[in-house]
Every structure is written in C-alpha cells, then in structure tokens.
C-alpha cells in the first residue's frame, strides 16, 4: 500500500529571458533540474517562458513563434519530466489551427504524458500588454487538471485578478492554485505607484488563497525587456514569485533576480483551515445569480 506524502515539494523557476529561444529553454531546463535535485515533485514555470514577452507591440511576424501542443517545446519538457520523475506546468504560445492561437499552460505528468491543458481565459488589452491581438480567449473552462501530485487549478497571469476563476477551480476540487505570470512595471511610473502595483498583485493572490482555503503558487519573470518599436522604454518584470498557504501566509518568496525556489507545502492544511473558516459552507449560492451579468444597472 502506498503511503501518501504529508507535503508537496514545489519548485518555481523564475528566469530572465532573451530573444534566443534555445538559450531560454536551456535556462528553463537547468532550473527544472535544480528544483528536482532539491526534491521538487512539481515545478511551475513562468508565463511564456520560451521567449520574450512579445505583447508589448502588435506584430504579425510574432505568430511564427507559436507551436502546437504536443510540439517541440512540450515534447522536450515531457522527456525531461519523465527523466526526472516530476510534474511540470509550462506556459506556451499555442498554435491551435491556422489563424487560431492561445496562451496555454500545459501540464506534463511524471511519465512524460500530457495530463491536461488550460487556455488563458481573461485576455488583457492595455498599453504594453496587447494580448488580444495574439490570443483567443480560452474555451476549456476552469477545470483542475488531475495529476499524480493532485488536482492542479492552473490559471495564467491576467486570470490572477479575477476571484471568479480561483473560486471556480476551488469548487471543482483543486488542491492547489497555480499562476504562471509575466507582469512588470512601466518605469516611467513613480516609485510609489510601482510599489502599489506590485503589492496589489501579491495581495489579490494571497486573497485567493484565503477565500478558497488553498495554497497559491505564483511564478513571475524578471529583468528588463525593451519595447521592440522603441516607442516606450519597455517593461521591467518584477519577479517576486511566491507560494502562499491557505491562510495567505508566505511559505516562500523570491526577489527581482533569476532564482529557483523550492518549498514544502503541507497537504493537510487546507482541510484544517476549511474546518475553522468554512467559507464554502456559508456561501449564499441562492443570491449570486447577478454575478453572471456585466454590471448591475
């Protein structure tokens, strides 16, 4: 009889990217190997880890970077997952069909198989984040992906601002919430504004942990990436990847430089927390119908 581990050992690969895909993937692979060497059984990568964050401009040539799933990057990472015996959550620019592209997280099982995919549901369209030009909104819903380490509630970047996505994953039985992310500052903003933005980003995701009684795992990129058009100064990605427990407590925190985080997370803590804070029990599901409206006029 197999005894279930009392903890998850989770790794995060926070890296700085260049325009060289092979270099980026070598960095990713090295980070996964380090995490596995330090005991990680689940490794989360940052959003669009194979390249630069290309959404600062709208350029049709960028679609050449997209790939199918399975495809070259997912196949390489699948082989690594099998070699190391780890579950990998990777974020890719998916070419689904001619003219149809998604921002997709793929979960690779320990045996190298694809456990499942999540296509980013919330797509931003803001200065330096022109994602609607590239990505079709996801159509797979908010469904946790069953793996050997548990049910993973995978969401992507802009999804992190929406409590609905986190709650839907929790209601479907997710054991963990995971967010691969690419977010940073416009350095023309004042320093106090930049700090407010970063603290809001951290706080809202810790709130998802509290509201749902689940650990939250967040992996963000670091470093400066210039605006290809030269019109703007580019983005400075702030890193600060972190893992929070089901009461929002920090279990691991990164800085603003490339690093690999590895942390132990108590599997049983969510059960204990939900017994004393039974938010799911006390939800007034009879009174929430208007949540499906855009606005209550």
Write up this protein:
This protein is α+β, with helices and mostly antiparallel strands and 297 residues long. The chain has one domain: Carbon-nitrogen hydrolase (Nitrilase/N-carbamoyl-D-aminoacid amidohydrolase), CATH 3.60.110. The protein is built from five helices and 17 strands. The strands form four sheets. Strands 5-4-3-2-1-17 form a six-stranded mixed beta sheet. Helix 1 runs parallel beside helix 2. The longest helix has 22 residues. The radius of gyration is 18 Å and the shape is globular. This is N-carbamoylputrescine amidase. Pfam families: CN_hydrolase. It comes from Nannocystis exedens. One of its GO terms (molecular function) is N-carbamoylputrescine amidase activity.
List the helices and strands and how they pair.
Layout: E1 7-14, H1 21-37, E2 42-45, H2 72-84, E3 87-97, E4 100-108, E5 114-119, E6 125-126, E7 129-130, E8 145-147, E9 150-154, H3 163-171, E10 176-181, E11 184-186, H4 191-212, E12 216-220, E13 222-225, E14 235-238, E15 242-244, E16 250-253, E17 259-266, H5 269-276
Parallel strand pairs: 1-2, 2-3, 9-10, 10-12
Antiparallel strand pairs: 1-17, 3-4, 4-5, 6-7, 8-9, 11-14, 12-15, 13-14, 15-16
């Amino acid at each position: 009889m197999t005894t279930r581990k009392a903890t998850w050992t989770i790794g995060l690969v926070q890296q700085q990217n260049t325009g060289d895909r092979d270099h980026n993937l070598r960095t990713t692979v090295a980070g996964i190997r380090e995490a596995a060497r330090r005991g990680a059984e689940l490794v989360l990568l940052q959003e669009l880890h194979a390249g630069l964050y290309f959404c600062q401009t709208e350029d049709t040539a960028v679609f050449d970077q997209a790939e199918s799933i399975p495809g070259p990057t997912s196949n390489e990472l699948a082989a690594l997952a099998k070699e190391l015996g780890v579950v990998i959550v990777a974020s890719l620019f998916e070419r689904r069909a001619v003219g149809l592209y998604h921002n997709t997280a793929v979960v690779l099982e320990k045996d190298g198989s694809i456990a499942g995919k999540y296509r980013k549901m919330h797509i931003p369209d803001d200065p330096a984040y022109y994602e609607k030009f590239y990505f079709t909104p996801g159509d797979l819903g908010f469904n946790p992906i069953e793996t050997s380490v548990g049910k993973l509630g995978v969401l992507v970047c802009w999804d992190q601002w929406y409590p609905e996505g986190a709650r839907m994953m929790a209601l479907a039985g997710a054991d963990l919430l995971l967010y691969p992310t690419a977010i940073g500052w416009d350095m023309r903003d004042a320093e106090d504004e930049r700090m407010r933005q970063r603290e809001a980003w951290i706080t809202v995701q810790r709130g998802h942990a509290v509201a749902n009684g689940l650990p939250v795992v967040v992996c963000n990129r670091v470093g400066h990436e210039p605006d290809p058009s030269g019109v703007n100064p580019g983005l400075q990605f702030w890193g600060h990847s972190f893992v929070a427990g089901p009461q929002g407590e920090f279990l691991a925190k990164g800085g603003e430089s490339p690093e690999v985080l590895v942390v132990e997370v108590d599997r049983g803590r969510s059960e204990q927390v939900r017994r004393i804070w039974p938010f799911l029990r006390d939800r007034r599901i009879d009174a929430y119908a208007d949540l499906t409206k855009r606005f209550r006029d």
